[in-house]
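Note to self: keep these together.
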Amino acid sequence: MTQLKPKHLINPFIVKYPVTQKKVTHLFDHPGEEFFMVLKGEVEFVYGTETIILNAGDAIHLDASVPHRGQNIGNEESECLVIVVGETG
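Structure:
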């Protein structure tokens, strides 16, 4: 097992995006870095002023302080692995 520095926080989770026709209107930002990998489906990922299309198996690593958000653009539910790495107070 890895010995982590006491101030580092690693938060992995799965996000499931339902099928929707809505456009992304609200972006999120937070301290740290983020790894985002599409496990199933097709996702439109907005990062700052860029829009990136990601398919199953695609991944990105980003500065989470830049406003961002993912959204399903496929015909079935999409599923993504997200790992946020930040620092605690």
